[in-house]
Every structure is written in C-alpha cells, then in structure tokens.
Specification:
By secondary structure, the protein is an all-alpha fold. The protein has one domain (about 10-384): Growth Hormone, Chain: A (Up-down Bundle), CATH 1.20.1250. The chain is about 80% helix and about 0% strand. It contains 16 helices and no strands. Helix 1 (about 10-25) runs antiparallel to helix 7 (about 110-120) and helix 11 (about 205-230) runs antiparallel to helix 15 (about 295-320). The radius of gyration is 20 Å and the shape is globular.
C-alpha cells in the first residue's frame, strides 16, 4: 500500500475545494427549476421533483457508498463526471429525473472528504475538518448564485456542463495529489453495511443528533426550493440571475455559524442547537408576518441560513466525538438521515406550495423546526 505522504496546506485546500465543487451539484437545480419546467413544457410541480430525486439519490449514495471510506482508499470514490455529462444532454423530463437520482448518488464525495480530513492529520483534526467543511458551505452557497447567472446568460444545460469540467479537474487533483490513507475495516461489504446499522443502536446521541439535523435540513430544502417559485411570480417576477443572488446573502451563515461550533467544542452542544433553531423559528415567523416585503425576506434568508448551518456545524462537532475508528460509518448514519430529511422537506414544500402557496409553505416550515427543537430539549433533559 502507498505510504501516507506528509500533509500540506495544498492537500487541505484541494479537499476543501473538491468538497465545495462536489456538493454544489445538489443545489444547482434550485434557482433554475422554472427554466427547466419551461424547457420541457411541464408544470412547476413536476419540475419540483428534480431536487427531491437528487436528495433521495444523495441519501442512497451516502448509505451504500460512503461507508466504503472505512474499507477502501477514500480518494477513489471521487469520480462522477459521466453522470453530469449525461445530465447536460438529457432531452426528456423523465431522463432528467433519472440523471438527478444518479447525480445525487454519486455526489457523496464531499462526505467522503470530511472523515478523510479527520484521519489525514490527527494532530490538527479539528482545524482540517473545519476548513473542509467551510469549503462545503461555500459550495452550497455559491451553487445558487452560479447556476442562476449561467442559466440566465447561457441556458440551464450549461450549468451542468460547466460543472462537469470543474469536477473533472478536482477529481484528477485528488487522484494524483492527495495521499492514500490506510483503511481500518477488514471485513466484506455486507459486514461493513451491518456495522453501519450497528452504529445507530450503539449511540443514542447519534440518533437524536441525526433527527435534529433531518428536520432542520428538511425545512432548509423546502424553503429554498419554493423560494424559487415565489420570487419568479407576482409581485416580484425576478429572473433566475436575480434569484441566485439570494444565495449571496447566505454567506452570512458560513461566516457566523462557526461561533456556534465553538459552543459545541466547549460542551454546550444543546445550547448551541437551541440557539440556532430559535433563529430559524424567528425567520419563519417573519416570513409569515411580512411575506411580500423584500427587506423582511432578506432577513428571513439570513436567519434561516445562519441557523441551519450553525446546527449542522454543531451536529458534526458532536458526532465526531464518538468512535474515531468508525468515522465514515458514523458519518454515513448521520448524513443519510440528514439528506433523506432534506428530500422529504423538498417534496412536502413543493406540495404545500401547490396546495396553499407561500403561507402553507411557512406553516409546514414552522412544524419542521418545532419538532427539531423538541428533540434538542429532550436531549438536554436526558443529559441532566
């Protein structure tokens, strides 16, 4: 086996950039759903299935592929250029559905890199994981801005074509530059999956944290998917490039969320979770009270993104305090539940938009976050 090379800033930078480029593919479709609907002459409801299938695919990829990071060198899992190219040239809505599902499945590279960052240099584990996660956050936030502009000036297909080129570059960099990390799990694939299931029973903290993450991310995905429909219609009638600019506002989430992570490092994870979720609740209430006020909507975006990203950072800091020899499997459990929550939230959000518009969306968002904060308080009670 190839010996592990000395870890450098270049290695961590490549991992952070790769995480951002990979995870962005899950979010590119959100600001361009209306363009896709018009391109295929289908309803907004049918176009709304695209992010749902992408999230479902991501959940499946997390569960069936990510655990392999404990069995085979992780950098071998970061290849999915063919799916993006197929998505670029798909000519039917059903073909796009299939490619969206596959794209989600193979976009788990970002989640392979987080445990890799934890293992690559144990002396600087926290620092490395935080840097890679920052790259992941930037990818999530930039995806909406980039896709909106590309779709407006070149067309929505170019979004995935350009992304394919970016993925090819980072895939080659990870293959030729990153060191190979020695694997720790020696069993077969079936045993690996059974061991992943065992982590659920093994750690009650993992179960509760994953459920909190699932409900919060469900609200997050529901909001951003339906926001596209809301802003593209009356009274705003914004184009995709303008809608994409709302992603810039979310940079506030990436800048301020680490403050909550410091609370988790000091043993105040529950306090951090409650504070973060309370911000989301404030955003949803503002969304209901002043639905068509653009200034209020800007604050809604800020509150929701800061709250969601802060919750995620706190959750990751919490689960990485568990067994370090099973980071990939623990990460698999958490992120599978997390993104399945996102898929369900997206689906419910689209349905609520179709049934009752923006107000119905706001009501279901409030339900999601209230359930999440109930789990956070339950965790606090059990800790006491």
């Amino acid at each position: 086996m190839e010996e592990q090379k000395k870890v450098s800033r270049l290695h961590i930078a490549i991992m952070a950039i790769t995480a951002g480029v990979c995870v962005a593919n899950i979010y590119y479709n959100q600001p361009i759903l209306k363009d896709i609907a018009l391109s295929f002459n289908v309803s907004e409801s049918k176009a709304g299935l695209i992010p749902v299938l992408t999230q479902i695919g991501y959940g499946l990829g997390l569960f069936f592929i990510t655990p392999l990071g404990d069995k085979i060198p992780r950098k071998k899992l970061i290849f999915f250029i063919a799916v993006l190219l197929c998505m670029t040239f798909t000519n039917t809505i059903y073909g796009l559905y299939l490619m969206s599902l596959l794209l989600g499945m193979v976009s788990i590279s970002a989640q392979v890199l987080l445990p890799m960052a934890a293992a690559i240099d144990k002396e600087n584990r926290g620092k490395n994981v935080s840097l890679v996660f920052t790259g992941l956050l930037v990818g999530i936030l930039a995806a909406r801005v980039v896709s909106g502009y590309i779709a407006h000036w070149l067309g929505w297909r170019y979004v995935f074509g350009i992304s394919a080129g970016m993925v090819l570059i980072v895939s080659l960099l990870t293959w030729f530059v990153l060191p190979t990390i020695a694997v720790e799990f020696k069993g077969n694939y079936g045993q690996l999956l059974r061991s992943t299931f065992a982590q659920v029973k093994r750690f009650p903290l993992l179960r509760r944290t994953a459920l909190i993450g699932a409900f919060i991310f469900g609200a997050f995905c529901s909001f951003w998917t339906t926001l596209t429909f809301f802003l593209s219609g009356p009274p705003f009638n914004y184009h995709t490039d303008t809608i994409g600019l709302f992603g810039v506002l979310a940079i506030g989430g990436a800048l301020l969320a680490p403050v909550f992570g410091k609370l988790a490092d000091k043993g105040n994870s529950t306090r951090s979770q409650v504070m973060a979720i309370s911000l989301i609740i404030a955003g949803v209430l503002l969304m209901k009270i002043m639905p068509t006020n653009i200034i209020a909507l800007i604050f809604v975006v800020l509150f929701l993104d800061i709250g969601v990203q802060a919750t995620q950072i706190t959750n990751i800091a919490t689960i990485y305090t568990l067994d370090e020899t099973a980071h990939s499997r623990i990460n698999t459990v958490y992120m599978t539940i997390y993104f399945l929550g996102g898929a369900l939230g997206t689906y419910v959000g689209v349905k609520c938009w179709h049934i009752g518009g923006w107000q119905m969306v706001a009501w279901q968002l409030l339900l999601w976050v209230l359930i999440a904060i109930a789990f956070a308080f339950k965790k606090k009670e059990q800790a006491n």
